[in-house]
Design brief:
The structure is a single chain. With about 350 residues, this protein is α+β, with helices and mostly antiparallel strands. The chain is built from 4 helices and 15 strands. Strands 1, 2, 3, 6, 7, 8, 9, 14 and 15 form a 9-stranded mixed sheet that branches. Strands 4-5 form a two-stranded antiparallel ribbon. The protein has a two-stranded antiparallel ribbon with strand order 10-11. The longest helix has 14 residues. The protein is globular and about 55 Å long.
Protein backbone atom coordinates (compact mmCIF):
# COMPACT_ATOMS: atom_id res chain seq x y z
CA UNK A 1 0.00 0.00 0.00
CA UNK A 2 0.94 3.66 -0.19
CA UNK A 3 1.02 5.67 3.02
CA UNK A 4 0.57 9.39 3.64
CA UNK A 5 3.35 11.91 4.08
CA UNK A 6 3.65 15.63 3.42
CA UNK A 7 4.78 16.71 -0.06
CA UNK A 8 8.24 18.10 -0.62
CA UNK A 9 8.70 21.78 0.32
CA UNK A 10 8.55 24.32 -2.48
CA UNK A 11 11.28 26.90 -2.93
CA UNK A 12 9.72 30.34 -2.62
CA UNK A 13 10.12 32.43 -5.77
CA UNK A 14 8.39 35.57 -7.03
CA UNK A 15 5.34 34.94 -9.25
CA UNK A 16 5.90 34.38 -12.97
CA UNK A 17 4.94 37.39 -15.07
CA UNK A 18 3.59 37.58 -18.59
CA UNK A 19 6.63 39.61 -19.69
CA UNK A 20 8.85 36.52 -19.11
CA UNK A 21 6.56 34.30 -21.21
CA UNK A 22 8.33 33.00 -24.36
CA UNK A 23 6.44 30.80 -26.86
CA UNK A 24 8.07 28.86 -29.69
CA UNK A 25 5.79 26.95 -32.11
CA UNK A 26 6.51 23.29 -32.91
CA UNK A 27 5.72 21.35 -36.09
CA UNK A 28 3.24 19.96 -37.14
CA UNK A 29 1.44 21.46 -34.12
CA UNK A 30 2.08 22.33 -30.50
CA UNK A 31 4.46 24.80 -28.88
CA UNK A 32 7.02 25.09 -26.11
CA UNK A 33 7.01 27.79 -23.46
CA UNK A 34 9.95 29.16 -21.50
CA UNK A 35 10.21 31.74 -18.75
CA UNK A 36 7.44 30.76 -16.32
CA UNK A 37 7.35 28.93 -12.98
CA UNK A 38 4.21 26.85 -12.44
CA UNK A 39 4.73 26.93 -8.68
CA UNK A 40 4.10 30.68 -8.82
CA UNK A 41 1.76 31.51 -11.69
CA UNK A 42 -0.06 34.87 -11.80
CA UNK A 43 -3.43 35.27 -13.52
CA UNK A 44 -2.14 37.23 -16.52
CA UNK A 45 0.45 34.55 -17.31
CA UNK A 46 -2.13 31.79 -16.84
CA UNK A 47 -4.43 33.44 -19.38
CA UNK A 48 -1.62 33.46 -21.94
CA UNK A 49 -0.90 29.82 -21.17
CA UNK A 50 -4.60 28.94 -21.40
CA UNK A 51 -4.88 30.57 -24.83
CA UNK A 52 -1.76 28.72 -26.00
CA UNK A 53 -3.31 25.35 -25.05
CA UNK A 54 -6.48 26.01 -27.05
CA UNK A 55 -4.64 27.45 -30.06
CA UNK A 56 -1.67 25.05 -30.25
CA UNK A 57 -3.41 21.94 -28.77
CA UNK A 58 -0.26 20.77 -26.93
CA UNK A 59 2.08 22.88 -24.82
CA UNK A 60 5.43 21.85 -23.34
CA UNK A 61 6.38 24.08 -20.43
CA UNK A 62 10.10 23.81 -19.97
CA UNK A 63 12.19 23.71 -16.79
CA UNK A 64 9.69 22.75 -14.08
CA UNK A 65 11.96 20.34 -12.17
CA UNK A 66 10.84 21.58 -8.75
CA UNK A 67 7.10 21.42 -9.42
CA UNK A 68 4.93 20.72 -6.38
CA UNK A 69 2.17 18.15 -7.21
CA UNK A 70 -0.37 20.47 -5.56
CA UNK A 71 0.52 23.19 -8.07
CA UNK A 72 0.06 20.70 -10.94
CA UNK A 73 -3.46 20.03 -9.72
CA UNK A 74 -4.10 23.77 -9.21
CA UNK A 75 -3.05 24.41 -12.81
CA UNK A 76 -5.52 21.84 -14.18
CA UNK A 77 -8.31 23.13 -11.94
CA UNK A 78 -7.84 26.68 -13.26
CA UNK A 79 -8.94 25.47 -16.69
CA UNK A 80 -12.25 24.26 -15.22
CA UNK A 81 -12.80 25.86 -11.80
CA UNK A 82 -16.42 24.61 -11.61
CA UNK A 83 -15.04 21.07 -11.27
CA UNK A 84 -12.31 21.85 -8.75
CA UNK A 85 -11.87 18.89 -6.39
CA UNK A 86 -13.10 16.25 -8.84
CA UNK A 87 -10.69 13.63 -10.16
CA UNK A 88 -11.24 12.47 -13.75
CA UNK A 89 -9.59 9.14 -12.87
CA UNK A 90 -11.12 8.46 -9.46
CA UNK A 91 -13.84 5.94 -10.30
CA UNK A 92 -12.85 2.29 -9.97
CA UNK A 93 -15.34 -0.52 -10.61
CA UNK A 94 -14.57 -4.14 -9.77
CA UNK A 95 -16.17 -6.42 -12.36
CA UNK A 96 -15.48 -10.01 -13.39
CA UNK A 97 -12.47 -10.16 -11.10
CA UNK A 98 -10.81 -7.10 -12.64
CA UNK A 99 -10.40 -3.44 -11.77
CA UNK A 100 -11.91 -1.22 -14.43
CA UNK A 101 -10.96 2.40 -15.05
CA UNK A 102 -7.80 3.98 -13.70
CA UNK A 103 -6.24 2.39 -10.63
CA UNK A 104 -2.80 4.03 -10.81
CA UNK A 105 -1.33 5.02 -7.42
CA UNK A 106 -1.56 8.67 -6.45
CA UNK A 107 0.45 11.31 -4.61
CA UNK A 108 -0.76 10.78 -1.02
CA UNK A 109 -1.39 14.46 -0.28
CA UNK A 110 -2.78 15.24 -3.77
CA UNK A 111 -4.85 12.21 -4.91
CA UNK A 112 -5.81 13.85 -8.22
CA UNK A 113 -2.15 13.49 -9.33
CA UNK A 114 -1.29 9.92 -10.26
CA UNK A 115 1.93 8.04 -10.93
CA UNK A 116 2.06 6.53 -14.42
CA UNK A 117 4.96 4.75 -16.10
CA UNK A 118 7.17 1.70 -16.24
CA UNK A 119 9.79 0.60 -13.74
CA UNK A 120 10.49 0.55 -10.02
CA UNK A 121 9.91 3.64 -7.90
CA UNK A 122 11.57 3.80 -4.46
CA UNK A 123 9.73 4.73 -1.26
CA UNK A 124 9.56 8.40 -0.24
CA UNK A 125 8.59 9.58 -3.72
CA UNK A 126 6.52 12.69 -2.99
CA UNK A 127 5.14 11.24 0.21
CA UNK A 128 4.91 7.51 -0.50
CA UNK A 129 6.06 5.11 2.21
CA UNK A 130 6.32 1.92 0.15
CA UNK A 131 8.26 1.16 -3.06
CA UNK A 132 6.16 0.77 -6.22
CA UNK A 133 6.52 -1.18 -9.44
CA UNK A 134 4.70 0.47 -12.33
CA UNK A 135 3.62 -1.43 -15.42
CA UNK A 136 0.48 0.30 -16.66
CA UNK A 137 -0.92 0.93 -20.12
CA UNK A 138 1.06 -1.77 -21.93
CA UNK A 139 -0.20 -2.64 -25.40
CA UNK A 140 0.46 -6.31 -24.60
CA UNK A 141 -2.73 -6.57 -22.55
CA UNK A 142 -4.75 -4.69 -25.17
CA UNK A 143 -3.57 -5.53 -28.71
CA UNK A 144 -4.80 -8.66 -30.48
CA UNK A 145 -1.26 -9.45 -31.72
CA UNK A 146 1.22 -7.81 -29.32
CA UNK A 147 4.97 -7.57 -29.73
CA UNK A 148 7.04 -10.30 -28.14
CA UNK A 149 9.23 -9.64 -25.14
CA UNK A 150 12.28 -10.04 -27.38
CA UNK A 151 10.98 -7.47 -29.87
CA UNK A 152 10.35 -4.95 -27.10
CA UNK A 153 13.78 -5.61 -25.55
CA UNK A 154 15.26 -4.78 -28.97
CA UNK A 155 13.59 -1.37 -28.86
CA UNK A 156 10.43 -1.97 -30.90
CA UNK A 157 7.29 -0.29 -29.61
CA UNK A 158 3.71 0.56 -30.54
CA UNK A 159 1.11 3.22 -30.06
CA UNK A 160 -0.88 1.65 -27.23
CA UNK A 161 -4.21 3.23 -28.18
CA UNK A 162 -5.34 6.60 -29.46
CA UNK A 163 -7.83 8.24 -27.12
CA UNK A 164 -8.82 11.27 -25.13
CA UNK A 165 -8.95 11.11 -21.34
CA UNK A 166 -12.52 10.31 -20.34
CA UNK A 167 -14.79 7.59 -19.01
CA UNK A 168 -17.87 8.79 -20.97
CA UNK A 169 -20.14 7.43 -18.26
CA UNK A 170 -21.74 9.89 -15.88
CA UNK A 171 -19.12 12.59 -16.42
CA UNK A 172 -17.79 14.66 -19.31
CA UNK A 173 -14.20 14.43 -20.59
CA UNK A 174 -11.53 16.61 -19.06
CA UNK A 175 -10.78 19.92 -20.76
CA UNK A 176 -7.03 19.49 -20.32
CA UNK A 177 -4.60 16.83 -19.15
CA UNK A 178 -1.26 17.62 -17.52
CA UNK A 179 1.76 15.29 -17.50
CA UNK A 180 4.83 16.28 -15.51
CA UNK A 181 7.90 14.39 -16.68
CA UNK A 182 9.82 13.07 -13.68
CA UNK A 183 11.95 10.40 -15.39
CA UNK A 184 12.29 10.19 -19.17
CA UNK A 185 13.23 6.90 -20.90
CA UNK A 186 15.68 6.22 -23.69
CA UNK A 187 14.04 6.52 -27.16
CA UNK A 188 12.60 3.48 -28.99
CA UNK A 189 11.38 2.70 -32.54
CA UNK A 190 7.72 2.95 -33.52
CA UNK A 191 5.36 0.40 -35.04
CA UNK A 192 1.63 -0.34 -35.71
CA UNK A 193 -1.21 2.16 -35.21
CA UNK A 194 -3.23 1.66 -32.00
CA UNK A 195 -6.61 2.39 -33.60
CA UNK A 196 -9.82 0.53 -32.77
CA UNK A 197 -10.78 -2.90 -31.46
CA UNK A 198 -11.05 -6.40 -32.86
CA UNK A 199 -14.59 -7.76 -32.71
CA UNK A 200 -14.71 -11.21 -31.12
CA UNK A 201 -18.17 -11.18 -29.52
CA UNK A 202 -16.69 -10.81 -26.02
CA UNK A 203 -18.52 -7.62 -25.05
CA UNK A 204 -20.69 -7.67 -21.94
CA UNK A 205 -24.25 -6.36 -22.55
CA UNK A 206 -24.75 -2.94 -21.01
CA UNK A 207 -27.59 -4.13 -18.75
CA UNK A 208 -25.24 -6.73 -17.21
CA UNK A 209 -22.62 -4.20 -16.14
CA UNK A 210 -22.38 -3.35 -12.41
CA UNK A 211 -23.61 0.19 -13.11
CA UNK A 212 -25.87 0.44 -16.17
CA UNK A 213 -27.84 3.58 -15.28
CA UNK A 214 -29.09 4.83 -18.69
CA UNK A 215 -28.92 8.41 -17.41
CA UNK A 216 -25.11 8.09 -17.26
CA UNK A 217 -24.69 6.81 -20.82
CA UNK A 218 -23.51 9.68 -23.00
CA UNK A 219 -24.76 10.44 -26.50
CA UNK A 220 -22.37 12.85 -28.19
CA UNK A 221 -21.74 14.19 -31.71
CA UNK A 222 -18.57 13.03 -33.43
CA UNK A 223 -17.40 16.64 -33.90
CA UNK A 224 -16.39 18.87 -30.97
CA UNK A 225 -15.62 22.59 -31.39
CA UNK A 226 -12.70 24.42 -29.83
CA UNK A 227 -14.28 27.07 -27.54
CA UNK A 228 -11.52 29.61 -28.29
CA UNK A 229 -10.68 29.14 -31.98
CA UNK A 230 -13.91 27.57 -33.24
CA UNK A 231 -11.95 24.77 -34.94
CA UNK A 232 -13.82 21.47 -35.18
CA UNK A 233 -12.21 18.20 -34.10
CA UNK A 234 -13.27 14.63 -35.00
CA UNK A 235 -13.13 13.25 -31.46
CA UNK A 236 -15.12 10.00 -31.35
CA UNK A 237 -13.73 7.53 -28.79
CA UNK A 238 -14.08 4.47 -31.01
CA UNK A 239 -13.11 1.74 -28.54
CA UNK A 240 -16.16 2.36 -26.34
CA UNK A 241 -18.77 3.26 -28.97
CA UNK A 242 -21.87 1.03 -28.91
CA UNK A 243 -24.20 2.82 -31.34
CA UNK A 244 -23.61 5.13 -34.29
CA UNK A 245 -26.14 7.50 -35.89
CA UNK A 246 -25.04 8.79 -39.31
CA UNK A 247 -26.59 11.31 -41.66
CA UNK A 248 -24.89 11.91 -45.01
CA UNK A 249 -26.64 15.21 -45.71
CA UNK A 250 -28.26 17.88 -43.57
CA UNK A 251 -31.80 16.71 -44.31
CA UNK A 252 -31.10 13.08 -45.20
CA UNK A 253 -32.29 9.99 -43.33
CA UNK A 254 -30.41 8.75 -40.28
CA UNK A 255 -28.53 5.46 -40.59
CA UNK A 256 -28.35 3.66 -37.23
CA UNK A 257 -25.49 1.18 -36.79
CA UNK A 258 -25.54 -1.09 -33.73
CA UNK A 259 -23.73 -4.13 -35.12
CA UNK A 260 -20.33 -3.75 -33.44
CA UNK A 261 -18.10 -5.15 -36.22
CA UNK A 262 -19.81 -2.83 -38.74
CA UNK A 263 -19.66 0.13 -36.36
CA UNK A 264 -15.97 -0.37 -35.60
CA UNK A 265 -15.04 -0.71 -39.26
CA UNK A 266 -16.93 2.47 -40.09
CA UNK A 267 -15.15 4.42 -37.35
CA UNK A 268 -11.78 2.91 -38.29
CA UNK A 269 -12.27 3.94 -41.92
CA UNK A 270 -13.16 7.47 -40.81
CA UNK A 271 -10.20 7.84 -38.43
CA UNK A 272 -7.39 5.96 -40.17
CA UNK A 273 -6.65 8.69 -42.79
CA UNK A 274 -5.64 11.05 -39.97
CA UNK A 275 -2.82 8.76 -38.85
CA UNK A 276 -0.12 10.24 -41.06
CA UNK A 277 3.34 11.54 -40.12
CA UNK A 278 2.31 15.14 -40.81
CA UNK A 279 -0.44 14.85 -38.18
CA UNK A 280 1.66 13.23 -35.43
CA UNK A 281 3.95 14.89 -32.91
CA UNK A 282 6.31 12.83 -30.78
CA UNK A 283 6.30 15.33 -27.95
CA UNK A 284 9.93 16.38 -27.32
CA UNK A 285 9.61 16.70 -23.55
CA UNK A 286 12.55 16.32 -21.18
CA UNK A 287 12.81 15.56 -17.47
CA UNK A 288 11.25 18.38 -15.48
CA UNK A 289 8.97 19.57 -18.30
CA UNK A 290 5.20 19.88 -18.02
CA UNK A 291 3.22 18.58 -21.00
CA UNK A 292 -0.27 20.10 -21.16
CA UNK A 293 -2.81 19.43 -23.89
CA UNK A 294 -6.34 20.27 -25.00
CA UNK A 295 -7.98 16.91 -24.26
CA UNK A 296 -11.09 17.71 -26.31
CA UNK A 297 -9.22 18.48 -29.51
CA UNK A 298 -6.20 16.20 -29.51
CA UNK A 299 -6.00 12.43 -29.28
CA UNK A 300 -2.93 10.90 -27.74
CA UNK A 301 -1.35 7.53 -27.12
CA UNK A 302 1.20 6.05 -24.76
CA UNK A 303 4.25 4.54 -26.46
CA UNK A 304 5.24 1.24 -24.90
CA UNK A 305 8.58 0.66 -23.18
CA UNK A 306 10.38 -2.51 -22.12
CA UNK A 307 11.52 -2.60 -18.50
CA UNK A 308 15.13 -3.15 -19.56
CA UNK A 309 15.25 0.45 -20.76
CA UNK A 310 15.50 3.40 -18.41
CA UNK A 311 12.44 3.74 -16.13
CA UNK A 312 9.69 6.12 -17.14
CA UNK A 313 7.68 8.05 -14.57
CA UNK A 314 5.21 10.88 -15.09
CA UNK A 315 2.71 12.57 -12.81
CA UNK A 316 -0.68 12.73 -14.55
CA UNK A 317 -3.62 14.93 -13.62
CA UNK A 318 -7.02 15.69 -15.11
CA UNK A 319 -10.46 16.49 -13.71
CA UNK A 320 -13.78 15.54 -15.25
CA UNK A 321 -15.27 18.33 -17.36
CA UNK A 322 -18.05 20.64 -16.24
CA UNK A 323 -19.69 21.06 -19.66
CA UNK A 324 -20.61 19.06 -22.75
CA UNK A 325 -17.61 18.94 -25.13
CA UNK A 326 -19.92 19.20 -28.14
CA UNK A 327 -21.53 22.39 -26.74
CA UNK A 328 -18.78 23.92 -24.58
CA UNK A 329 -19.18 27.01 -22.48
CA UNK A 330 -17.15 30.04 -23.63
CA UNK A 331 -13.78 30.37 -21.89
CA UNK A 332 -13.83 33.45 -19.61
CA UNK A 333 -11.34 36.09 -20.68
CA UNK A 334 -10.51 34.38 -23.99
CA UNK A 335 -11.63 35.02 -27.58
CA UNK A 336 -14.71 33.00 -28.50
CA UNK A 337 -14.74 31.24 -31.87
CA UNK A 338 -18.01 29.40 -31.28
CA UNK A 339 -20.82 29.98 -33.73
CA UNK A 340 -24.12 31.24 -32.32
Amino acid sequence: MVGVKATAPVKELPPSTATEFQLNPLKPFGCEIHGIDLNHLDEETFKKLENAVYVHKLVIIRDQKHLDPARQYDLVARFDPVQAGKDGNAKVIHFQGKQNFNSAPAVPAVPQVRFVGVGDIPADHYGTTEPMSLDLNSHRAFHKTPLTDEEMANGDTRFQRWHCDAQFFGQYPAKVTALWIHTAPDPAKGNVNGFGLYSEGMEVPIDELPDSDPEKIQVLPLIWPNPVTGEKGFMVHAIIARKLNLRYSKDGPVEVIEDLPTLRKKLYDLQRPFLQPENILFSPQEEGDMCLWFNRGLRHSAVDLHKSFSPRLVHQCQISGSDNPAFPDPVPGQPNGLQA
